[in-house]
Amino acid sequence: MKEEVIKRIIRYLSGESSDAEKKEMKIWKKKNPDLFSEIENIYINTPFESLEFEKADLAGLLNQHNLTNSIIRESSLKTGRALGLWIKIAASLLILISIGTAANYLFPKQHITENTSAHTLAIVLPDHSEVILDKGARFSYKTSLLGSFNRTVKIEGRGHFHITRNEEHPFIVRTSTADIKVLGTKFTVSAFDIRSQILLEEGKIEVFSKETNETILLSQSGEQIIISDRGVDKHNTVKSKLYMSWMKNRLEFNNCTVDDALEFLSDTWNLNVVLNDSVSGNIKLIGTAPSDDPELIMQAITLIINQESNINIIQ
């Protein structure tokens, strides 16, 4: 029952309390505003929200610091005894904060991976999801109080995600302009500065624009969306094999037209490419190129169509 009381505290602070619990807490909060503020600050800086409460051994964790008995001696929150109970809980939480040996339990551990190599880098997450990072990409996530992973990550640069399905705990990818919500699927995210490109390989994902508060569902293989600080810039279907070939450390322009290649350059590196000759746009391309050198690709295309004046790049 000790765990149940602690869960009630967390439920209230996370907005999941019942009406009766909310009423009880509002009364207590009015009588003890300063103490409530202290408890709230502890909660904000403690990753309780990512705990799986049904599996968490909270009492066991508290026993490690000989604090179980001081946290609570009651089995439930009841009218008339709530004030003393909350004071005990608050005081014990404050003690936890002050104990240096408890720091590893109270604060989330940040996991950061930066791919500084000349090749792609594969990593496996705690939930067995897999991520492939492109050269120069930066990826991070946190584990919490009991080492649990709340399936929320951040990425800067380009990465491919193969997410383990878990309907009760959706996977969230955060960029500077968008949040991507996933149950289980494969997709690529390219996040650079104020622009994010999301390309679906299989499954379904929901993409949320932070600028417009708009949510867009991607459900077709090859469907992509580009979101900037202005909102949704583009939503269409592309040749996914070309867009995802970077995972082999080389781009593969097999059975692509010049138009396909120029659209890829525009989508991936935000180049405003204008081809004045529509006939040249139908020329087929076969070959490979470095996955991180758009200028070299443009030079090769220019030589292939042999009409340099017909291609204009506006950055």
Strand composition percent: 25-35%
**Structural domain tally:** 3
Shape: elongated
The largest pleated sheet is described as:
13 strands, mixed
Number of helices: 10
Helix content: 25-40%
Instruction: Quote the average pLDDT.
Output: 77
CATH architecture level-2 label of the largest domain: Sandwich
CATH topology of the largest domain: Jelly Rolls
How would you describe this structure to a colleague?
- With about 325 residues, this protein is α+β, with helices and mostly antiparallel strands.
- The protein folds into 3 domains: about 1-105, no CATH class; about 110-235, Sandwich (Jelly Rolls); about 240-315, Phage tail protein beta-alpha-beta fold, CATH 3.55.50.
- The protein has 10 helices and 19 strands.
- The chain has helices spanning about 1-15, 20-30, 35-45, 60-65, 70, 80-100, 105, 240-245, 260-270, 295-305, and strands at about 110-115, 120-125, 130-135, 140-145, 150-160, 170-175, 180, 185-190, 195-200, 205-210, 215-220, 225-230, 230-235, 250, 255, 270-275, 285, 290, 310-315.
- The strands form 4 sheets. Strands 1, 2, 3, 4, 5, 6, 7, 8, 9, 10, 11, 12 and 13 form a 13-stranded mixed sheet that branches. The chain has a two-stranded antiparallel ribbon with strand order 14-18.
- A hairpin with a 5-residue loop joins β4 and β5.
- α3 (about 35-45) crosses α6 (about 80-100).
- The N and C termini lie far apart (about 60 Å).
- Residues about 45-80, about 100-105 and about 310-315 have low confidence and may be disordered.
